[in-house]
Design a protein that fits this description.
Helices cover 65% and strands 0% of the residues. By secondary structure, it is an all-alpha fold. The chain has two domains: 91 residues, no CATH class; 41 residues, no CATH class.
């Protein structure tokens, strides 16, 4: 989802000044990102995070018109609401802290990709769930 937001914020400034164009271009760009990410996870990693098979007009269950409309609305919220609100705050974060946070984020992403590829299931990312099966010998913990 962050990639879609970054793609929308990377649209040319001329588009970002016009709400209708933000809605349309944002919807298309975010949907394209969603499709590419879905193909990457399915073909490259062997997992599937979402399925729109039951949605009308879906394309291989990866994207659908309803969520394209949602991406357009979220593009408006991002460009006119979140970006102006958070940009001044984010600009105050020191470069060294940004670099450390980026390295942590990248390490988390690589570890997640490794686990997803190795297990072939998104369940490996649910380490925080209370209802997961308990390993033998850990019942009393």
């Amino acid at each position: 989802y962050g990639l879609g937001a970054l793609a929308v914020l990377s649209l040319p400034a001329l588009l970002l000044r016009r709400p209708l164009l933000v809605f349309l271009a944002g919807a298309l760009v975010a949907t394209l990102v969603e499709y590419v990410v879905a193909v990457f996870y399915e073909k490259g990693v062997g997992v599937r995070f979402w399925e729109y098979d039951q949605q009308p007009g879906n394309l291989s269950g990866r994207i659908c018109p309803l969520y394209t409309l949602f991406w357009g609305a979220l593009s408006l919220l991002t460009v006119y609401g979140l970006q102006p609100l958070f940009s001044p705050l984010l600009a105050r974060i020191p470069l060294w802290l940004t670099q450390i946070l980026f390295l942590l984020f990248a390490a988390d992403g690589l570890l997640s990709l490794f686990l997803l590829h190795r297990t072939g299931s998104t369940d490996c990312l649910l380490w925080y769930r209370r209802d997961r099966p308990v390993s033998p010998g850990q019942e009393s913990m």
